[in-house]
Amino acid sequence: MRYALLAAVFATACVTSSQATRAGGAVENPIVQVGHPVLRERAKDVTKEQLATPEFQALVARMTEAMRQAPGVGLAAPQLGVPLRVFVLEDRAELQASLTPGELGERERVPVPLRVIVNPTLTPIGDERVTFFEGCLSVSGYAALVERWREVEVSGLDEKGEPVTWRVKGWPARILQHETDHLDGVIYIDRMLPRTFGTLPQVKARFGGKPIADIKEALGVTK
Ligand code: CO
């Protein structure tokens, strides 16, 4: 079904319709929504000492849980109200199940196991840019076209404090850019093609399955 298909498409760096609740009815790990100042701050580096604490490890666990509950494919610490430079990323096959092979191929979207990146440095590779719809768990219910680098390299630390470097193309590169932006107080709405911004139901109904070039033309986007 189209709606489900697009839910998976836009589950790119985030997008949720509801927050999971537990037996008590309380929302677990509520995701901070746009307008909150924590989403506009530059988050602080995680120190080696901090990284080793149970509190930090518990934060990573809460971030992973919140990302999976949403569900989304990435979550940065500021989205749980914590201004630290760490994000989690995971793109499970089940989130991709409703996309056609063509759509997955166009987006260069493949399953990615859980990764935790602390104090990331992001470097674009090459000069190729690609444009797709993107949403954010902190701008719940909306999506827009966003142009991103096709390939990037990220380096930083993993959750154990070990150095990591990851060079990747396609959808995971998009997620990395979206999540690193969060650590700098940048949200995708700062980078979107504004005329393409819409509620998820509108975007799904009007643009689901259509070529990006046709969507841009229909909306009068010349970039
Ligand atoms: Co986001």
Q: Assign the CATH class.
A: Alpha Beta
Chain-averaged pLDDT? 89
Rounded to an integer in angstroms, the radius of gyration calculated over CA atoms is 17 Å
Q: What is the annotated CATH architecture? A: Alpha-Beta Complex
Reported for the largest beta sheet, the result is: 6 strands, antiparallel
Low-confidence stretches: 1-25
Strand content: 25-35%
State the helicity in percent bands. 25-40%
Number of alpha- plus pi-helical segments: 8
Structural class of the secondary elements? Answer: alpha+beta
**N-to-C span:** 31 Å
Which geometry do the CA atoms define?
globular
Structural domain tally = 1
Describe the structure concisely for a colleague:
30% of the residues lie in helices and 26% in strands. It has helices spanning 2-10, 48-51, 54-69, 93-96, 101-107, 171-183, 200-207, 212-218; strands at 74-76, 86-91, 112-134, 142-157, 163-169, 198-199.
List its salient traits.
alpha+beta, 6 strands, Peptide Deformylase, binds cobalt (II) ion, 26% strand, 223 residues
Can you offer a commentary on this structure?
The longest helix has 16 residues, at 54-69. A hairpin with a 7-residue loop joins strand 3 (112-134) and strand 4. Mean pLDDT is 89; it is low at 1-25. The chain starts with a helix and ends in a 5-residue tail after the last helix. The chain is of the alpha+beta class and 223 residues long. The protein has one domain: Peptide deformylase (Peptide Deformylase). The protein has 8 helices and 6 strands, in the order αααββααβββαβαα. Helix 1 packs across helix 7. Cobalt (II) ion binds next to helix 6.
